[in-house]
Amino acid sequence: MALYEHVFLARQDASTQQVEELTAQMTGIVEGLGGKVTKTENWGVRSLTYRMNKNRKAHFVLLNIDAPSAAIAEIERQERISEDVIRYLSVRVEELEEGPSAMMRKADRDRERDDRGGGFRDREGGGFRGDREGGFRGGDRDGGGFRGDRGPRRPREDAETTTDGE
Questions:
Q1: Strands 2-11 and 85-93
Q2: 164 belongs to a structural domain
Q3: Taking the chain (166 residues) in consecutive chunks of 10 residues, what is each chunk's mean pLDDT?
Q4: Does residue 65 sit within a domain?
Q5: 125 lies in a domain?
Q6: How many structural domains comprise the chain?
Q7: Is 72:6 a contact under the CB 8 Å cutoff?
Q8: Alpha-carbon distance values, 60 to 25, 41, 66, 89 (Å)
Q9: pLDDT (0 to 100) of residue 48
């Protein structure tokens, strides 16, 4: 049997229970066709890079599958039918990853960083836009563009001046 990593994205307005039921349904299909799901990871609701079917967020679920290709074909067919599934991707791999996936390790690292207060937003004297004084305008925000620190505009000496009535 072949080894697969399968990820599907469920709509954000689907409840966690509905996503678990959908995952259980996919697991049941694999086991019914002679395969097994070795690992299931729910990555939670995450923002999408771009809108998909009017959704800006989605529930992400990873399944590590050891099954024949017919089981993957059936899972993908069921996901095409389901209105709750936005996208899916199945990749055949040489070996399944043991332990937590890269997404789960990243979530753990982020959680640890937040716990010890090492985020770049919390550093002394650091931050992003709030610590810049005046930004690109060179000082106060008077609406003068890049001329804010050079004073008012003067007419050019070589410009023609006209007066009314002459």
A1: antiparallel
A2: no
A3: 92 92 94 92 90 92 93 94 93 85 76 69 50 50 54 66 59
A4: yes
A5: no
A6: 1
A7: yes
A8: 16, 9, 20, 11
A9: 92
